[in-house]
Every structure is written in C-alpha cells, then in structure tokens.
Amino acid sequence: PTAPAQVLEKSERVTGDGAPEENRQSGADSGVPPQGGEMSAIRFSRIELRNWKNFTRVDVPLANRVFLVGPNASGKSNFLDAFRFLRDLVTEGGGLAKAVDARDGMSKLRSLYARGTNTHVSIAVEVTNDPGAGSVMIELGQPRNNDPVPVSVIV
Q1: 151 and 139 Cβ atoms separated by less than 8 Å
Q2: What is the pLDDT of residues 105-117, one digit of tens each?
C-alpha cells in the first residue's frame, strides 16, 4: 500500500490573480485589470470528500497556497480532480451528467472501499471570498438505471 498524499500549507497574502502581493505585475498579460482592481475568483478554504475515488473520507483546510506531496498513486490527482469536477458542474455546456461521464461514470468516482456500504459520493467545500462566502455540499447517488442523481445539494 502506498502512503496517502500529504497537504502542506503556506499562508501568505495573495491577490485576486493568485500571485503573491510582492510579485504582482500589471498589464495585459498578468491577468490583473488595468485599473489595479482585484479579480473575482473563488477561494476555497476547506474541502471534504467522502467516497471520492481512493478516499473514503478526507477533510482538508486550505490556506492561500497549498502543496500536494506524496508518492505515485497516493491520491494527489484524485484530490485535484474534485476541484475539476466542481468546475465541470458549472461550466457552460457542463452539468452533472457531463461531469460524471468525463470520469467514466459513477462506478469510477465511488471509492472502492465504499462499495457495498455507503454508496453516496459527496464533495463539500467552504468558500471564503466575499461576496460569495458560504459552503456547498453535493451528495451523489446512483440508482439502478446507472445515471448519477443528486441525493442532496446544500448551499
């Protein structure tokens, strides 16, 4: 068995474009608006995964900058895929069915360790940037017809 990935955190003041304040550039290629205003970006301060891929349950507080460190096959990519899944849910032309299909169905999302027990897969995140502060929890199930269905969505 491989050791699980570790999450190392480094806190520092980061601007809306993700660059540390002292490294911030302005101009067309920097992603910073010309007037020097902050960009509107979602900042997750916590993520909790249940029965997601190789995780039965993980709850991770997130600082402004996070480094994932671990051996091969320890879950780093699966952890990051939870964020890509959330992106795919809200992307124009996306949605639940498309996000699940892009990952080869619910059977590939559900943790192998959870098969036969709690079959629901959930992702919960906390968002801390204003004005979008709050939390969202999405729990997915799979009825007999093999289509993913939201069991609950809590905002």
Answers
A1: yes
A2: 888 888 887 766 5
Which element (helix H / strand E) includes 6? Answer: strand 6-10
Alpha-carbon distance 58 to 52, whole Å?
Answer: 9
Residue 44 exposure: Cα atoms within 13 Å on the Cβ side: 19
Q: Are 57 and 111 in contact (CB under 8 A)?
A: no
The pTM assigned to this predicted structure is: 0.68
Residues 6+ apart with CB under 8 A from 111: 51, 52, 53, 54, 55, 56, 121
Chain position carrying tokens 């997130």: 62
DSSP E strands, 20-89: 44-52, 55-61, 65-69
Residue pLDDT, tens place only, 72-98: 999 999 999 999 999 998 888 888 889
Of 81, 82, 80, 76, which is closest to residue 122 (Cα–Cα)? 82
Q: Which pLDDT score, from 0 to 100, does residue 23 have?
A: 42
Position 81: which residue type? D
Query: How many other CB atoms sit within 10 Å of the CB of residue 122?
Result: 19
